[in-house]
Amino acid sequence: MNVPFYKYHGTGNDFIIIDQFRKKYLTTDDTELVGKLCERRFGIGADGLILLQPSDKHVFDMVYFNADGQVGSLCGNGSRCAVQCVHSMGLFDRSCKFTASDGVHSASRLKDGTIQLKMQPVQSVEVGKGYYIMDTGSPHYVTFVEDLSDLDIVQSGRAIRYADRFRETGINVNFVEEDASSLEVNTYERGVEDETLSCGTGVTAAALAHALNQQLEKGHVKVQTKGGSLTVKFKKDPAGFKDIWLCGPAVEVFQGKVSI
Questions:
Q1: Of the N and C termini of the chain, which has fewer Cβ atoms inside 10 Å?
Q2: Is the pTM of this model over 0.90?
Q3: Which of 38, 75, 81, 247 is catalytic?
């Protein structure tokens, strides 16, 4: 069977996207196949795979797989790419709603092509000695460093991700270099088990940790990743953070068909 697909990236975080509005090609049981498609040397190559499916209430439902083939939690950059892909199909004009693993999300497309994704509120942050842990749709560990260039991101990230506390379910690990007006973030992602060029939920977690560090009540934080620039907007309230938006580009790389 030949399966048509799209290849997208959001600041270098890349995804295979499959349109299942009219025909179902894959299911959540196809973990081995998804893993093979995401392989960079023997497959199409991607940090994850997304199924776009019809929704009873919203524009689409999104199913996300990590590169290892397992069904994943929310992917921020992947969601923005899915929104751009659905927009290119003509299924909405300026804004839409869709369902993901953590519930319903709103999104919009600006005139310059920027995709804005509304994240779920964050009401619980664990603050430890030198770290923050929170769930921004996926679980994240955030730590601030003086100089990212001094770090081996893979080795340092893996040491935290496979620590006894996180070994079973895993956690994404973000190393953040901070100044007064912007952040630089490098991320080790579970499920990929490697550094990625960008992580949307990780960038969001880093911006919220920065807000706690700097005692910000609201923010419009520019974040630089190895794959490009993203912006996180938010407001702080007594319960945590709300009105969180992840904003940035989502780009089609190519379209193709793969035989499975």
A1: N
A2: yes
A3: 75
Q: Can 85 be counted among the known catalytic residues?
A: no
Give tens-digit pLDDT for 103-144.
Answer: 999 999 999 999 999 999 999 999 999 999 999 999 999 999
Choosing from 81, 85, 199, 247, the catalytic residue is 199
Q: What is the pLDDT of residues 63-78, one digit of tens each?
A: 999 999 999 999 999 9
Query: Is residue 44 within 8 Å of residue 38, measured between CB atoms?
Result: yes
The span from the CA of 229 to the CA of 247, in Å, is: 9
pLDDT score at 89: 98
199 catalytic residue (yes or no) = yes
Angle at 115 between CA 113 and CA 117, to 5 degrees: 170
Residue 85 amino acid letter: C
Domains of the chain (ranges, CATH numbers): 2-117+250-259 (3.10.310.10), 125-248 (3.10.310.10)
